[in-house]
């Protein structure tokens, strides 16, 4: 017997030793491995992947929107800070100049008399004060001189309360020192005297 015949006989014996049930199981296993996945399973997996992709896209969109909002807020804050820096850069300088103006006004009030020297001094002081006021107005430094106006706690500082029958209570009747605003912001308050109602004197009891 040749070698080829021997191999053929061995194969036939091996195949004859495999039971029919085992053969069917092997065939079913091979078919299951080769068969494509069920349609429902594929659709479910695709839906799951789509949902995950949509969630990720939404998260990225939310992050982008928040980032844009933060950048816009930062831009607005920076712009406002720059505007304030330009508008109020003269704040300290204006306060110093106000002290010079106060001295001029006090000197003018103290200059009494009718001599030529006093008159010249008064004229010079008045002219200088007007020049100060012109320069202040140019840079939007506005004077607060509230005589006859209602007291405003945001712009006025009450130094004295004074009884008065001539004006309504809470009216400014005198100004010790003028106040000033710089671009709408209080540079210093006006120091004022505020009217209050007169106290009624108790009437003496009539004698019986």
Task: Describe the protein's architecture and organization.
This protein has 208 residues and is α+β, with helices and mostly antiparallel strands. The protein has 2 domains: 37-87; 91-196, Head domain of nucleotide exchange factor GrpE (Nucleotide Exchange Factor Grpe, Chain A, domain 2, Roll), CATH 2.30.22.10. It is built from 5 helices and 6 strands, in the order H-H-H-H-H-E-E-E-E-E-E. The chain has helices at 3-17, 20-34, 39-87, 91-110, 116-138; strands at 141-144, 156-163, 172-177, 179-182, 185-188, 190-196.
Secondary structure elements and pairings:
Elements: H1 3-17, H2 20-34, H3 39-87, H4 91-110, H5 116-138, E1 141-144, E2 156-163, E3 172-177, E4 179-182, E5 185-188, E6 190-196
Helix pairs in contact: 4-5
Features:
about 210 residues, alpha+beta, Nucleotide Exchange Factor Grpe, Chain A, domain 2, 2 domains, 3-stranded antiparallel β-sheet, 3-stranded mixed β-sheet, 5 helices, 6 strands, elongated
What fraction of residues sit in β-strands? 15-25%
Q: Examine the coordinates and then state which fold CATH places here, giving the name of the CATH topology of the largest domain.
A: Nucleotide Exchange Factor Grpe, Chain A, domain 2
**Helix/strand-derived class?**
alpha+beta
Q: Uncertain regions: pLDDT < 50 for 5+ in a row? A: none
């Amino acid at each position: 017997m040749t070698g080829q015949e021997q191999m053929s006989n061995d194969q036939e014996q091996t195949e004859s030793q495999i039971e029919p049930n085992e053969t069917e199981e092997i065939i079913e296993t091979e078919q299951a491995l080769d068969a494509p996945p069920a349609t429902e399973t594929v659709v479910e997996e695709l839906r799951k992947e789509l949902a995950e992709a949509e969630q990720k896209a939404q998260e990225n969109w939310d992050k982008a929107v928040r980032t844009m909002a933060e950048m816009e807020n930062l831009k607005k804050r920076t712009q406002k800070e720059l505007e304030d820096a330009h508008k109020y850069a003269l704040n300290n300088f204006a306060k110093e100049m106000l002290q010079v103006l106060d001295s001029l006004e006090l000197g003018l009030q103290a200059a009494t008399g009718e001599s030529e020297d006093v008159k010249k001094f008064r004229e010079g002081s008045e002219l200088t004060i007007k020049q100060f006021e012109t320069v202040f107005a140019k840079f939007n430094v506005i004077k607060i001189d509230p005589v006859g106006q209602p007291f405003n706690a945001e712009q006025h500082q009450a130094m004295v309360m004074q009884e008065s029958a001539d004006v309504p209570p809470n009216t400014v009747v005198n100004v010790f020192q003028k106040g000033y605003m710089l671009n709408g912001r209080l540079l210093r308050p006006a120091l004022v005297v505020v009217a209050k109602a007169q106290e009624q004197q108790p009437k003496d009891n009539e004698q019986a």
